Amino acid sequence: MINLAQRDIAHSLGKFITTAFGVGMLIGVVLIMIGVYRGMAHDAMIVPNDIAPDVWVVQKDTLGPFAENSRLHEDLKYSLKALAGVKEVHPLTFQSIQIIGKEKPIRLYALGYDVLSGFTPFHLSKGRKIRIPTQEIIVDSKSGFELGDQISLGRDEYTVVGLTHKAVSSGGDPMLYMGLREAQELQFLFSNDQIRNDRNRGVQSTSPQTVNTFALKLHTGVEIQQVIQEIKRWKHQQAFTQEEQAEILTKNLIERSAKQIGMFTVILLIVSSVIISLIIYTMTINKIKEIAILKLIGASNFTITKMIGQQSVLLGLIAFIAGNIFAHASADIFPKTIILVAQDAMKLFVVVMIVSILASISGIRTALRVDPSSAIGG
């Protein structure tokens, strides 16, 4: 018995492969979209996981430094340190800055911390830690800077003494780490004109000693929720566990993007289904006479249905393989992190096979309506 899929491959190999690769690119885009979501979730937790506190203390009635603006007086660290069970208190500042890179302006996410405390909210890939708060910084390699480069921030020049690898903010901006005092000055820096205007008004321009959050590490065995309740009750500030902060990041910063990515993914799968359906239908129309001959010599409807279904599934299989190759080959080109997971690919494979089978229905219906006598009419 003639196999329709094998016949198409034998007589129209180039057309069949080209068509499959075209559909494969759509499937590859679907896989990349899923990878974008996973990359967003991964990037959002890089900084929190590097800091890894037991408790985040933020401004009252806010959701934390990563979800919305939070400002706290720096001297709050002394009363927090006095709480029972608290081992370490690390004041931190966060701010987005834009500087002139080697070739073009680049946006960075600056983290300010007390460099003399021994606390390191990063993982170095090259270089060393900061030793001189007013002259040294650490940046991520994604920024394009190298060890020894000079970077101008505000009114000062800093030397890159260390590099991290793939340390980015939730928005995908490369990280920059600097001393707390310098970060505070940079965040609340007044221009010279502003300072002169304030002096004329009799106002002293100063940089407020504020931070965006405190990262608390507790002694072993201390009940975290008890410490949080103490902070809320006596310090009148908001506090979250690391798990709660992760949930806030996922829901508040990623949920809407996830829904949008999901909608695009569904649309692309629908488009892929329509394209496969049209291709199978066209291939079936081009073989009406052959199908009529098969019916004339006694081929059952099941046999014809099976042949067209095999053609559609084979097209989907080749498209899926091509899509995987395309997705993995292009993932590193994107400016943001793309994470491709084998489990996602397997789930997508099942979907593609279902889509391919459903897409063959129009071709099957056309084939089953063919009159065997049309094979004799010419």
Automatic annotation (TrEMBL):
<keyword id="KW-0812">Transmembrane</keyword>
<feature type="transmembrane region" description="Helical">
    <location>
        <begin position="308"/>
        <end position="327"/>
    </location>
</feature>
<feature type="transmembrane region" description="Helical">
    <location>
        <begin position="348"/>
        <end position="368"/>
    </location>
</feature>
<dbReference type="Pfam" id="PF12704">
    <property type="entry name" value="MacB_PCD"/>
</dbReference>
<feature type="transmembrane region" description="Helical">
    <location>
        <begin position="16"/>
        <end position="37"/>
    </location>
</feature>
<keyword id="KW-1003">Cell membrane</keyword>
<protein>
    <recommendedName>
        <fullName>ABC transporter permease</fullName>
    </recommendedName>
</protein>
<dbReference type="InterPro" id="IPR025857">
    <property type="entry name" value="MacB_PCD"/>
</dbReference>
<keyword id="KW-0813">Transport</keyword>
<keyword id="KW-0614">Plasmid</keyword>
<dbReference type="InterPro" id="IPR051125">
    <property type="entry name" value="ABC-4/HrtB_transporter"/>
</dbReference>
<dbReference type="Pfam" id="PF02687">
    <property type="entry name" value="FtsX"/>
</dbReference>
<feature type="transmembrane region" description="Helical">
    <location>
        <begin position="261"/>
        <end position="281"/>
    </location>
</feature>
<dbReference type="GO" id="GO:0005886">
    <property type="term" value="C:plasma membrane"/>
</dbReference>
<keyword id="KW-0472">Membrane</keyword>
<feature type="domain" description="MacB-like periplasmic core">
    <location>
        <begin position="18"/>
        <end position="233"/>
    </location>
</feature>
<keyword id="KW-1133">Transmembrane helix</keyword>
<dbReference type="InterPro" id="IPR003838">
    <property type="entry name" value="ABC3_permease_C"/>
</dbReference>
<feature type="domain" description="ABC3 transporter permease C-terminal">
    <location>
        <begin position="263"/>
        <end position="365"/>
    </location>
</feature>
